[in-house]
């Protein structure tokens, strides 16, 4: 077989502690995100980790609309909008152009990071097909980062395929006839992409509540070469209905309750990290999901039965899944019924 | 502008299809990024491109996408990053890419695409209709119809030159009738690389290049503050394309390649002494020209105007030309349900072009050859008879569906 040719890659070693992180910002003032917006923090950390020789493509969503009002862009690096379902294609096209132009001597050869980001609607719903395709192209260096605030948060908080079971959104309001309008379980996006794209060298989940961990996963994903995927869970005060001061705490609770497992699949080797590692190894106990759910207005209509059902699903994830927290094949078949 | 070239270089001749001619043009234009996705009939161009890449004759990133939407989005972004790109589609595939097609001119992406014109199924049909390409007519795409392999090759080179001219920076789609052109071979002259290099300068995105050395923000939220001004920019670019850049490109093409297309916007066939004229686009020129030769032997002086550039539309030139005849018959290979007089798209545009003209002959509209149905010589003769009647003062219907089964 012919060798797969890729362009040179930047040396982006892990930050050894928060004090080693440079002060320079490449996502800075000029944005209009909500108070307590974790996704804005994800943008800032993502591009801080990547550095100035980076091109960022952003698909439609809050991180487009709130960040790039004409004449007040928050991006210091080159940035381009792409269509809602096009993060995969935008990253691929940009990386392909750099590769063609540098190989043919039409552009000075140098390592340039390409990052395409998408929200949960743009990535896990509409853009899934294009992201999947991009992850099958080993010759292009491109990171797809999904910032998951669990709804179409830019357009008024409508449910997406990533909205948690039972959550109140403007498309799933609790009513008299139907207490729960949304009874689908959240997609297992990172696990699906890792399992389905064996040539992808890096798939990781992150949470910006653990900022240095998060930046180092972005750096790994950029440095390993080829197409890579990072999935970030971003608490959203507007969509989840909580006090903006609780954003970090909710991110931590998502991990501590086991709802959001932190893991990476690096060169096909799976590693859980942070609190999730302790949970998987049964060194630390998961907090009850009640602590996480009842801090958020979107679950205010939950009954004890709903919370029990949610807890049971998370218990399954850690106790019955073939690879706990990652791959949802059960060790043995069991009944799975929501409460009446 | 273009350099003087050595004319000693010879063109080679090859028997190739319309699709293959455009693949050869991609090679001559040294395209950097090409995306493919299968749909008949355009996809033959990508089969030829794939062979050129496999044989090392074309050095490009060749990406088989997972949908037309991705196909067009990938090249859109590649172009924004400085690459010369090529893409294409047909029928509902083109429509699947519609979101990408919509933003491409708005972003001033000078890509060149091939549309292998195809019916918009359902129900299933893969013969030619022009509605696929015509769907983008209001969006800032330049649209040009060609009718043979030579014109396809030449026009692809001209399309890059026009699209990438900084005065324009708008995409250009080359429409080729499915089967009749995409799959029909003809002897075609393939110009030497030196001529192409003299004609087509490298793609230079200038201060719109998305690169760390030029850290711009592309397509921010402008809303009601600025959108109208930006739309006006595109309007001005389209005007510059029509009034300056397309004529200049054809003049340079003629000088370097020794091949003239006359008026760049439309071909005139036996119009000089004609009493009536037929108007159409694409390969229906073949049966029309045969019928005209037949009718002329019988003393019926019919001419033909084949519109090449539908966008920008040559309204003034065309109106002046059509004003010379007793009546005009417009043959549409498309439909526009509910449009004025329930006409075809081209007939409606021709009537709009004629309205402010000093001489306004009657315009008779015809819908022909939908879904790849053959437009025959007898069809053209029947069309001409009605147009002669209109010229003689006998009112004809605004629109007639030719050969329709009742």
Automatic annotation (TrEMBL), chain A:
GO terms for molecular function: oxidoreductase activity; thiamine pyrophosphate binding. Transmembrane segments: none annotated. The keyword GTP-binding does not apply. Gene3D superfamilies: 3.40.50.970. Residues 60-231 form the Thiamine pyrophosphate enzyme TPP-binding domain. InterPro entries: PorB-like, THDP-binding, TPP_enzyme_TPP-bd. SUPFAM superfamilies: Thiamin diphosphate-binding fold (THDP-binding). It holds the Pfam family TPP_enzyme_C. Keywords: Oxidoreductase, Pyruvate. It comes from the Bacteria. This is Pyruvate synthase. It comes from Candidatus Segetimicrobium genomatis. The lineage of its organism: Bacteria, Bacillati, Candidatus Sysuimicrobiota, Candidatus Sysuimicrobiia, Candidatus Sysuimicrobiales.
UniProtKB/TrEMBL annotation, chain B:
The lineage of its organism: Bacteria, Bacillati, Candidatus Sysuimicrobiota, Candidatus Sysuimicrobiia, Candidatus Sysuimicrobiales. It holds the Pfam family POR_N. GO terms for molecular function: oxidoreductase activity, acting on the aldehyde or oxo group of donors. GO terms for biological process: carboxylic acid metabolic process; response to oxidative stress. This is Pyruvate ferredoxin oxidoreductase. Keywords: Oxidoreductase, Pyruvate. Gene3D superfamilies: 3.40.50.920, 3.40.50.970. InterPro entries: PFOR_II (IPR033412), Pyruvate:ferred/Flavod_OxRd (IPR050722), Pyrv_Fd/Flavodoxin_OxRdtase_N (IPR002880), THDP-binding (IPR029061), Transketo_C/PFOR_II (IPR009014). Residues 274-380 form the Pyruvate:ferredoxin oxidoreductase core domain. Residues 25-244 form the Pyruvate flavodoxin/ferredoxin oxidoreductase pyrimidine binding domain. It comes from the Bacteria.
């Amino acid at each position: 077989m012919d060798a797969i040719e890729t362009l040179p890659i930047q040396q982006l070693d892990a930050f050894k502690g928060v004090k080693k992180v440079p002060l320079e910002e490449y996502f800075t003032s000029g944005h209009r995100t909500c108070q307590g917006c974790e996704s804005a923090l994800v943008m800032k950390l993502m591009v801080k980790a990547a550095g100035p020789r980076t091109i960022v493509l952003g698909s439609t969503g809050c991180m487009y609309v709130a960040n790039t009002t004409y004449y007040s862009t928050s991006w210091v690096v080159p940035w381009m909008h792409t269509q809602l379902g096009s993060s995969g294609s935008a990253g691929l096209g940009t990386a392909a152009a750099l590769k063609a132009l540098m190989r043919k001597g039409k552009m000075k050869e140098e390592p340039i990071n390409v990052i395409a980001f998408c929200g949960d609607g743009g990535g896990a719903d509409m853009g899934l097909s294009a992201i999947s395709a991009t992850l099958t192209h080993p010759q292009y260096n491109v990171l797809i980062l999904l910032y998951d605030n669990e709804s179409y948060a830019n357009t008024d908080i409508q449910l997406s395929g990533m909205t948690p079971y039972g959550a109140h959104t403007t498309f799933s309001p609790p009513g008299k006839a139907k207490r729960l309008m949304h009874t689908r379980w959240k997609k297992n996006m990172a696990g699906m992409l890792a399992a389905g794209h064996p040539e992808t060298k890096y798939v990781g989940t992150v949470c910006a509540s653990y900022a240095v961990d998060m930046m180092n996963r972005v750096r790994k994903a950029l440095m390993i070469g080829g197409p890579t995927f990072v999935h970030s869970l971003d608490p959203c005060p507007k969509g989840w209905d909580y006090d903006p001061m609780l954003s970090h705490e909710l991110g931590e609770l998502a991990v501590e309750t086991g709802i959001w497992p932190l893991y990476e699949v690096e060169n096909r080797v799976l590693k859980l990290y942070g609190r999730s590692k302790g949970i998987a190894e049964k060194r630390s106990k998961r907090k009850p999901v009640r602590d996480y759910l009842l801090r958020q207005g979107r679950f205010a209509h939950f009954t004890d039965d709903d919370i029990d059902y949610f807890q049971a699903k998370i218990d399954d994830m850690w106790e019955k899944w073939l690879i706990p927290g990652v791959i949802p094949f059960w060790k043995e078949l069991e009944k799975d019924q929501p409460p009446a | 502008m273009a350099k003087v070239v050595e004319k000693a270089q010879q063109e080679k001749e090859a028997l190739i299809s319309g699709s293959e001619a455009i693949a050869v043009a991609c090679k001559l234009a040294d395209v950097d990024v090409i995306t493919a996705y299968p749909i008949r009939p355009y996809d033959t161009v990508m089969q030829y491109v794939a062979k050129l890449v496999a044989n090392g004759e074309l050095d490009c990133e060749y990406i088989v996408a997972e949908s037309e939407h991705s196909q067009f989005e990938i090249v859109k972004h590649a172009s924004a990053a400085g690459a010369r790109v090529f893409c294409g589609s047909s029928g509902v595939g083109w429509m699947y890419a519609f979101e990408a097609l919509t933003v491409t001119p708005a972003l001033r992406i000078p890509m060149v695409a091939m549309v292998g014109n195809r019916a918009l199924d359902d129900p299933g049909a893969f013969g030619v209709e022009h509605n696929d390409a015509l769907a983008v007519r209001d969006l800032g795409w330049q649209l040009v119809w060609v009718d043979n392999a030579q014109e396809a090759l030449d026009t692809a080179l001209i399309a890059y030159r026009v699209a990438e001219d900084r005065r324009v920076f708008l995409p250009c789609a080359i429409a080729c009738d499915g089967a009749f052109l995409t799959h029909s071979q003809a002897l075609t002259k393939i110009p030497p690389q030196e001529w192409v290099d003299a004609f087509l300068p490298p793609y230079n995105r200038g201060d719109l290049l998305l690169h760390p050395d030029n850290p711009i923000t592309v397509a921010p939220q402008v809303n009601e503050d600025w959108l109208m001004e930006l739309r006006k920019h595109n309007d001005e670019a389209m005007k510059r394309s029509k009034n300056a850049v397309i004529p200049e490109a054809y003049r340079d093409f003629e000088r370097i390649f020794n091949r003239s297309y006359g008026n760049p916007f439309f071909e005139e066939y036996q119009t000089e002494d004609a009493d009536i004229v037929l108007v159409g686009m694409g390969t229906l020129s073949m049966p029309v020209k045969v019928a005209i030769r037949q009718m002329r032997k019988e003393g019926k002086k019919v001419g033909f105007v084949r519109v090449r550039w539908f966008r920008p539309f040559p309204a003034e030139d065309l109106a002046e030309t059509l004003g010379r005849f007793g009546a005009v018959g417009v043959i549409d290979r498309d439909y526009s349900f509910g449009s004025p007089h329930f006409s075809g798209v081209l007939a409606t545009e021709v009537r709009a072009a004629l309205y402010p003209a000093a001489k306004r002959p009657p315009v008779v509209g015809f819908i022909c050859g939908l879904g790849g149905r053959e437009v025959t010589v007898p069809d053209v003769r029947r069309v001409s008879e009605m147009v002669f009647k209109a010229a003689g003062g006998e009112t004809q219907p605004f629109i007639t569906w030719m050969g329709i089964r009742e």
